[in-house]
Please model this.
Amino acid sequence: MTRELTCIICPRGCTLQIELEGKNILSVTGNGCPRGLKYAKDECCNPQRTVTSTVRCTDGRVVAVKTDKPIPKEHVFDCMKIINSVKADLPISIGDVIIKDVFGSNVIATENAEI
Model:
């Protein structure tokens, strides 16, 4: 099986062709640098995503949040359920941990919110 991806690691946007046999990568072509090779392997064998969203505060406002590192793609919807179930207390500063250990990542604030 051949899978085609566009590398998103740098602005070049190389078109990658990945030859797969099941979950085994036989070859990767089209990458302009070693980072494209790593991206292709990660995306085909262990896709991960950084989740960005908002958390409702106790006063009704919302604050932008994100996972501090990527989580397995298969857990993105479960992560969103957890994020949507939380209410954050004010004040909040950028970088504050809003939810600890969500699929190996912390959900952190990406904006400030004062009382």
